[in-house]
Design goal:
The protein is mainly beta and about 400 residues long. The chain contains two helices and 27 strands.
Length: about 400
């Protein structure tokens, strides 16, 4: 009896924290166009959605000083040197999210000593004095020439001068700004396969308006590793995607639905300087990680406790477990037809016995996909899948009688 009373008291105490604490915040990214997806059309003859020195068309981003950062795009013509995922014979990498990413040089021995590319963006709102912010972005080594360290983001009150749009300037004085956020230990980043997160905590003084990404150290203070012995005179080129600056808080993720037997990833990247604890009820299930894989057998609510700059925050996420088992989910329901399968641009969903009213699409880790374009046909619903990455997806269709049907499709 006493143990049950203590356990229930602990659960009530934790719920009190969750529902009455002022430290429950929504995740708002202060970086506009954080994944570079919004790009103005390029004027002729550069009508290929990527070209060196066109970074300023990914508004409000620009490439100050040199204007040489490039936009890489999965829809660029096959003749373009900026085609993603395969371009210039250097690397094979897709954007981390969406269709676009940015390529830039963190040193380039061909263009001269201490040459750097820079990209910068104004915040959606000026940072607040004494508030802490979670800052992270992702990089991938696209050059098989040289890798380097000192990849950083600087938080600044003022912007760097604009680059010479319509041209490039290779030789200039090194811009030496504070490297506020670097990868812990500042290693040379050599991974050409995976996207590497660079994350940290920044405490604002209250007038910061810009984020600037580059290598702010001289060549003499930058460590490099030669990747390809055949190209000793080239520099270190990296891809950039998904830049985040969010006010400190606990971010457990969005509520999601999975099939019984499936797994789903909760939370975000582990950020140095953040202490994280994951709970189910009052039971501690994981420590010191910002994200966790879970495989609940029934609908479960997870609680994330994050301590940042001596303040503790809470967030919850509920994983809804469908009664449909994974083996049933991965086979098309006999009443539900999806075609063509595999699909490339559009997918049609038809229920044989009653009209489909709503459609939900999930990826293989149970994340619900938002903002899919849908159109209603005579007895079916068509969804546009051209923007989806290649892979396996699950459909949850609810018909006019309220019954739920499931199916699987493959995006080519």
């Amino acid at each position: 009896m006493i143990n049950n009373f203590i356990k229930k008291s602990q659960q009530l105490l934790l719920l009190a924290f969750l529902f009455y604490s002022v430290n429950c915040k929504a995740q708002t990214n202060l970086i506009p166009n954080y994944s570079f997806e919004l790009v103005d059309s390029f004027p002729s003859p550069f009508n290929e959605l990527c070209w060196g020195g066109r970074m300023h068309l990914a508004k409000p981003w620009n490439s100050p000083v040199t204007n040489f950062a490039e936009i890489f795009h999965t829809d660029a013509p096959s003749t373009s040197s900026c085609l993603a995922p395969l371009f210039s014979g250097l690397a094979y990498q897709c954007p981390r999210t969406g269709k676009k990413m940015v390529g830039m040089w963190f040193n380039d021995f061909n263009k001269g000593a201490d040459y750097r590319d820079y990209i910068q963006v104004p915040f959606a709102d000026t940072l607040k004095a004494n508030n802490c912010y979670i800052v992270y972005f992702y990089v991938n080594l696209f050059s098989d020439y040289t890798a380097c360290n000192n990849i950083a983001i600087s938080i600044s009150d003022t912007a760097l001068p604009a680059g010479p749009y319509g041209g490039t300037q290779y030789f200039h004085d090194l811009v030496q700004l504070p490297s506020h956020i670097m990868k812990q230990g500042n290693p040379v980043i050599t991974d050409t396969m995976n996207w590497t997160p660079i994350a940290g905590i920044y405490q604002a003084h209250g007038s910061e308006k810009y984020a600037i990404i580059s290598n702010f150290h001289s060549d003499s203070l930058t460590d490099t590793i030669l990747i390809n012995q055949s190209y000793p005179g080239y520099g270190s080129g990296y891809l950039i995607d998904d830049v985040f600056v969010i006010e400190a808080g606990a971010y457990a993720g969005k509520d999601t639905t999975i099939a019984k037997g499936d797994s789903v990833y909760l939370g975000i990247e582990q950020v140095p300087g953040v202490q994280n604890n994951w709970y189910v009820g009052s039971s501690l299930i994981k420590q010191n990680t910002g994200g966790i894989w879970v495989q609940p057998q029934q609908t479960t609510t997870y609680v994330l406790q994050s301590t940042i700059c001596n303040t503790t925050y809470y967030d919850t996420v509920t994983v809804i477990v469908s009664n449909v088992g994974i083996n049933q989910l991965t086979n098309n329901n006999r009443q539900l037809e999806v075609y063509p399968n595999p699909a490339n641009t559009n997918l049609t969903i038809v229920n044989q016995q009653s009209l489909v009213k709503t459609i939900e699409v999930y990826d293989v880790v149970g994340r619900k996909l938002e903002d899919l374009k849908m159109s209603r046909l005579e007895n079916a619903i068509q969804i546009e899948v051209s923007d989806l990455s290649s892979g396996i997806y699950f459909i949850k269709a609810t018909d006019e009688k309220g019954f739920v049907h499931t199916a699987k499709f493959v995006k080519e």
